[in-house]
Structures are given as C-alpha cells and as structure tokens.
Amino acid sequence: MQVSWLRRALLAAACVSAIVVAACGGGTVVSQFNPNRVVAFGDAFSDVGQRGTRYTVNNATAAAWNERIALRYGLTLRPSAAGGFGFGIGSARVRVVPDAGGDASTPTITQQVDTFLATQPAFSAKDLVLVNAGIGDIVAEVAAINAGTQNDDQALAAVEQAAADLAAQVKRIANSGAEHVGVVGVFDLGRTPWATQTGQATRLSNLSQQFNIRLKTDLFGFNIASRVLYIDAEFYYNLVTQNLNNSTYGGINNVTDLACNSIDPGPGIGTGAGQVNSALCTDATITPGINIALTLFADRIYVTPAAASLFGDYAFDRLRARW
C-alpha cells in the first residue's frame, strides 16, 4: 500500500512539473493572454450565485475565487441561470448523483460541461476555462461512512474515481477547443471547522490529498499540458492556516470560528442537518464579534469573501505567469 501511494505521489509531482513548466521558468511568454470570456464549472466553491446566493457571506464584497479572476481580467462572470458562463453550483459532484445534500436535480460537473457544449458557442483560444470539483464528492462519501453504509477504503476508491472523472472532463474541455484551462482540486478539508468539530481531520485530509494526487496523476501523460494549468488550492490555503496575521495572506488570523450563524434546518452543505449554511449568510447573520475580513471560514467548509478573493488573486498570478 505504501509503495502504491508513493508511486502516486511521485506521478503527481511529475504531473505538476509537466503542467506548470511554463510558469516555473520553462518558457518565455511571447504575448500576454487576455481572454474574451471566462467559463467556469464546479461545485459550491465555484458557485457565483446559481440559486441567487454564493457559499460565503452574501454582502457587497461577496465574490467567488473565479469571479475575482474574471474581474482581474476586466470581465464579469455571471451564473448560467442568469445567462452567464458560471455553471458551478453548490454541492455538485463530478459525475455521481445525488449531490452532497441528497438533491438529484443538481447538475454534476459532467452535466455542466454537457450543457455548455450543447448550448453555447464553442470553446476558442480566447476563452479562459476554470474547473473545480471534489468537495461535493468527499462530503457525500464521508456522509456514507458516518451512516455506516461504507468503510474508509470504499470511500477512498470512490473519491479517487471522482478525481479520475474530473480529469476526463478537463481533457474533454481541452480537446474541444479550449487552450487555456485552469484546474483546481480541493483544499485540505482536514483543516476545516468541519474536521475539527467532528473529529475527522485525518480522514478528511487523506481523502482531500488522494483526490488531488489522483487528479494530477490522471492529467499527466496526456497531450494537453500546454493547455492546462493546475492551481493548487490545498497548497495555498495551507499557507494561510500556517501564517496567521501575515499580510501576505490578508492578515487572516481566525481559522477556527465560523463567520456565519445562518443555521439551515435541512441538509444544507451536506455535513448534517441544523448546521450553518453560508448560502443563507448575510451581514445580518454574521457571528457576533467576528471580523469577517480576518476570518477564513464562512461555514464548516466554505470560505469568506476575503479568503475567496485571496485565492482568486493567487490563481490569477499563476495564470498570468503561465499565459
């Protein structure tokens, strides 16, 4: 088992090297890429208001990381429900239904790509495509463990399959005309309040890490490296949690408390009924005494507007360095 996981880790490292070589000094940028359109697929982390709100504090500063990237390019990313190109939606999984909250009507990432290819102008060299997933699948698989319907090995196999399915969608996008594709896996869910509150930090870290390893491994070796950039959310948010009060990371100093107290009596974000759901959070439901500009998490999993913008800026810099 250790040999197998070491091999995966080495393959993932090779994948990162192959996919980000230009961003690491391996090439010269001849002309700076400026997209005409940003297209985004994903789960709650990428939801720009598909059902009317985002998974964060819904105030004047609210913006998902991909919206921040679009803004940095001088563009706007609106939800597809409002005629835009932001297809991400809360609790979505890569291929499997129902979603993390048990809703079978939520479009998977695969279905989001299906819809785009069937209804929108084709991908072009002037598009920037942003893809993220994994959180919804991990939430659903952990719920099954906690319900006693599967064990950790089964959950790991399902999560790795979800990562393989996501890689397949990335390749599908790249092979459908997209020449600039940014891919984001999951941040370390073992560092979230969900992990702390439920005592599942080791389990959640393992599933998060193995999802990312499998995603990068499955992208490696295919003729799309020049068109795909892996943007490491796990790496970035680990730096945030390890460097509190550091101005480089927005001065964030609270990585344990929830910025919101917007309780959802239903399934919410999929971590249990009666828990905080940031999709319901506004300035009126901020936890008393919390400075949301210095707090990482809005609910048990998803981040505040400040934290989303920080990652958006980091991702923009990676994209700009590459293309």
What's this, in brief?
By secondary structure, this protein is of the alpha/beta class. The protein is 39% helix and 10% strand. It has nine helices and eight strands.
Write the layout of secondary structure elements.
Layout: H1 2-19, E1 37-41, H2 65-72, H3 109-119, E2 127-132, H4 135-146, H5 152-174, E3 181-184, H6 193-198, H7 201-219, E4 228-231, H8 233-242, E5 254-258, E6 263-264, E7 275-276, E8 295-297, H9 305-322
Parallel strand pairs: 1-2, 2-3, 3-4, 5-8
Antiparallel strand pairs: 6-7
Signal peptide: 1-22
Keywords: Hydrolase, Signal
GO molecular function: hydrolase activity, acting on ester bonds
What's the architecture of the domain at 2-20 and 35-235 in CATH terms? 3-Layer(aba) Sandwich
Question: In order across it, which strands form the biggest sheet?
Answer: 1-2-3-4
C-alpha termini separation: 38 Å
Number of strands: 8
Helix content: 25-40%
Query: Regarding CATH, which class of the domain at 2-20 and 35-235?
Result: Alpha Beta
- Outline the biggest β-sheet: 4 strands, parallel
The radius of gyration is: 18 Å
CATH-defined fold name of the domain at 2-20 and 35-235: Rossmann fold
Count of helical stretches:
9
Report mean pLDDT, rounded to a whole number.
Answer: 92
Low-confidence stretches: 1-30
How would you classify the helix and strand content by structural class? alpha/beta
Gross morphology is globular
Q: What's the SSE pattern? A: HEHHEHHEHHEHEEEEH
Strand content: 5-15%
Q: Going by CATH, what is the homologous superfamily of the domain at 2-20 and 35-235?
A: SGNH hydrolase
